[in-house]
Fold Ribosomal RNA small subunit methyltransferase E.
Amino acid sequence: MQQYFIQKKNSDLVVGEYVKLSHEDSHHLLNVMRGQNGQTVQIVCNGQHFLANLVDTVEGYAVLKVFEKSSYDANQIELPVQVTIACGLSKNEKIEMIVQKATECGMAYFQPLSLTRDVVKWDSKKAQQKQNRLQKIAHSAAEQSKRALVPEILSIKTLKELLDSSLKYQHKWLAYEEIAKQGNHHYFANLLSQTEMGEEILFVFGSEGGLSEKEVAAFKAAGFKLCSLGPRILRAETAPIYALSAISYALEINFQEENHGTK
């Protein structure tokens, strides 16, 4: 069943209400999926899932009527922690893949980060275009993976701006390959064991060019914990996905067991 997101800032969706899909989602349902009147889709509004029927088309927009609140539980769909992935700037297809796959793995926010050894640079015009493009990718991936929320793509930050904004996070981690070369692979597991449900994590990754020693020193001075992601050196586009997968495996199982009293 197809899923689409509905934007309503001032109130929640209710059964019996009529809603319109966005232009892009309408095109997808009507033209790509060849939706017909009476077809049932799943829609999400403010983290709540509903079932709705396609009842009309108005000026190219799909009109849906909500007929049931779904049994989907956002707390069981989303990660039990809120993870912001901050990445140096990699080539277009790589950073787009990171956003797509990280959305599927439960990322809450994506923070583009300007670092010394980035292989590409974004000027102000390009930065806005890239942010918009990445937001569309996150939106589509969230629909496909049946997320309750669409990850937010944040405006690009410099290293200083990121460090200044990092104080709100309970956990600040930096993936650093030199830790892997030293064989200290238990650090990441230790960090996960110290994480509680509902906490916010800022996890930073370099681009293809890696991190400079000066940047690493700045992260350490700001209280970031350096960790390895295992004995193998991962590509820039692989490391965030690996990390999110590990977070999901380690924390979702533990927190579910704790909630059901089986641990």
